[in-house]
């Protein structure tokens, strides 16, 4: 099942989000956890403020249940993020003092508001090549994450990138880093690589070493080139680990009936407009940057079963407009989204329709926090 969207609360934060792996009940009762938990965060540049707002709310509810030291990373088996979502993933899972998250979820928006104007300087944009030189972004990520490597993250992390030299995807994961020194990159390097959106930021080069000491080189751009939906990457990884017998936290077998809880957070999409029909879709030039082919590719990657919001307009649709006014507007969108009704897309019409019996998105997040808390208590008790 492919899951994607701006904020997939309508599907992923209700009982409908609990995916059944098979119909036959397990022969024996598990002695570990009962539910696999996944968090996925999309790319979108400065619009990362929107999922940052949602994550801060979710973490606050976890703290109400389990105390002020509760952190997002403690509750998810896998956290996957692309582009700016990769940066958020790293912030949530980077170890700090006492092996707790170096950053709280509420620190995400603080990071964007303090550093966004320097990452995307509006008065110093280039007219040739990438719009920004990326130097400040690289510097602040290295400063924030230090010498932490992929094998040190607090939970399983997956950060998709694309190697522009080899023309193939490169996935950085905690599990790979533990068994392959060449994949045990600095967490900062993986973040910088996945954030290198081709039109905005330059490709990123760095090196690691193989077990025999030989050098491995990476030439990376934005992971969204191949994994615009990091949820797919995370769920595929989990099932691969289950099949190989490597999944540690939940005693599942490929044919067991087990539950997977997924929350997939996006960074917003522009308000839907019926720009094309069968006639106008043929009236464009290959030189046009905005054309039906590109729009269709983007939409088919982004719009799957349930999406709760797609009404960004004006400056808020930009991924790099890091003005104080726009960043405040994005935070306001995130807060207002919490109070909107859970919604699902009608696949026949493309319209987003509220599901009144499921309450607001904040109601759904509160329910989700309780599920996460209960699962963690089971594992702690065992």
TrEMBL record:
InterPro entries named in the record: Acyl_Trfase/lysoPLipase (IPR016035), PNPLA_dom (IPR002641)
Q: Which residues form the signal peptide?
A: 1-21
Q: Which GO terms describe its molecular function?
A: monoacylglycerol lipase activity; phospholipase activity
List UniProt keywords, sorted A-Z.
Hydrolase, Lipid degradation, Lipid metabolism, Plant defense, Signal
| Motif GXGXXG location, chain numbering | 43-48
Which Pfam families is this protein grouped with? Patatin
Please report, in chain numbering, the residue ranges of the motif GXSXG: 81-85
EC class of the enzyme, as a word: hydrolase
SUPFAM superfamilies in the record: FabD/lysophospholipase-like
Q: Which residues form the active site?
A: 83, 222
Question: What region holds the PNPLA domain?
Answer: 39-235
Its transmembrane ranges are none
Q: Does the keyword Hydrolase apply?
A: yes
Q: Where is this motif: DGA/G?
A: 222-224
Query: Which Enzyme Commission number(s) are on file for it?
Result: 3.1.1.-
Among PROSITE patterns, the record links this protein to:
PNPLA
Q: Which GO BP terms, alphabetically?
A: defense response; lipid catabolic process
- Entry similarity comment: Belongs to the patatin family.
| Entry note about domains | The nitrogen atoms of the two glycine residues in the GGXR motif define the oxyanion hole, and stabilize the oxyanion that forms during the nucleophilic attack by the catalytic serine during substrate cleavage.
Q: What does the record give as the function of this protein?
A: Lipolytic acyl hydrolase (LAH).
Q: What is this protein called?
A: Patatin
């Amino acid at each position: 099942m492919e899951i994607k969207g701006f904020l997939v609360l309508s599907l992923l934060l209700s009982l409908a989000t609990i995916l059944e792996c098979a119909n036959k009940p397990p022969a024996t009762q598990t002695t570990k956890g009962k539910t696999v938990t996944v968090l996925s965060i999309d790319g979108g540049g400065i619009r990362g403020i929107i999922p940052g707002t949602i994550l801060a709310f979710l973490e606050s509810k976890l703290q109400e249940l389990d105390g002020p030291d509760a952190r997002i990373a403690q509750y998810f088996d896998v956290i996957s993020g692309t582009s700016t979502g990769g940066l958020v993933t790293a912030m949530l899972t980077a170890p700090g003092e006492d092996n707790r998250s170096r950053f709280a979820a509420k620190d995400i928006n603080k990071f964007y508001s303090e550093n966004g104007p320097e990452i995307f300087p509006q008065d110093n944009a280039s007219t040739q090549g990438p719009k920004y030189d990326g130097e400040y972004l690289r510097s602040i990520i290295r400063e924030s994450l230090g010498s932490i490597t992929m094998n040190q993250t607090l939970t399983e992390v997956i950060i998709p990138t694309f190697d522009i030299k080899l023309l193939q995807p490169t996935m950085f994961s905690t599990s790979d880093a533990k068994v392959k020194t060449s994949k045990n990159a600095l967490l900062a390097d993986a973040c910088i690589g996945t954030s290198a959106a081709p039109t905005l930021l330059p490709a990123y080069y760095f090196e690691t070493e193989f077990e025999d000491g030989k050098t491995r080189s990476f030439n990376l751009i934005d992971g969204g080139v191949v994994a615009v939906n990091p949820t797919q990457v995370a769920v595929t990884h989990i099932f691969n680990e289950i099949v190989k017998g490597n999944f540690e936290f939940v005693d599942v077998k490929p044919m067991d009936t087990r539950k997977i809880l997924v929350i997939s957070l996006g960074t917003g999409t522009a308000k839907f407009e019926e720009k094309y029909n069968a006639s106008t879709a043929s009236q464009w030039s290959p030189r046009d940057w905005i054309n039906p082919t590109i729009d269709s590719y983007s939409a088919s990657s982004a719009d799957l079963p349930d999406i709760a919001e797609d009404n960004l307009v004006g400056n808020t649709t930009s991924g790099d407009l890091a003005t104080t006014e726009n960043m405040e507007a994005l935070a306001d969108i995130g807060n207002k989204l919490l109070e909107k009704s859970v919604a699902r897309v009608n696949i026949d019409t493309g319209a987003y329709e509220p599901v009144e019996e499921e309450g607001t998105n904040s109601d759904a997040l509160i329910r989700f926090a309780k599920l996460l808390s209960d699962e963690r208590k089971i594992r702690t008790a065992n």
